[in-house]
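Re: weekly structure request thread

Next one in the queue (156 aa):
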Amino acid sequence: MVDVLGGRLLVTRGGAWVEAEAALQNKVVALYFAAARCAFSRDFTPLLCDFYAELVEQARPPAPLAVVLVSADRSAQEMQDFMNQLPGSWLALPFQDPYQRELRTRYRVTVTPRLVVLTPGGELITDKGRTQVRARGRACFQSWLEAADVFQNFCG
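Done, posted below.
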């Protein structure tokens, strides 16, 4: 995550600050570009929450997956209201962090929602995470892990 979120502070649903590197270490990271006001985000978010719950909250051992919200909300309150609907372990870039724009540009995000999946090292696995979750459910996570392992073995 050093290349993507290294040195950044993320915020929890409760408002606490956490260091991205520590919180995301050894995890596949899904950057979730979404907004509370977006009908498509409101439609996909419950599916993503269920996907996450099955893989992380209900599984033993939990899958090495972290979701980071990159909000497109219009206000800090709108973002907080949206975060209150999400699993408590999800993190977010702070509201109005200028780095959100850089991430949108880097991953060519022009509409929400968009789920961009990265290896623990920050390499792109897929920018079509939303489509994969809808089509394959939690089975797509295995292919993400395999891709992450390929990157690790190739680069390491």
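Residues 39-57 form the longest helix (19 residues). Confidence is low (pLDDT under 50) at residues 152-156.
Next request, please.
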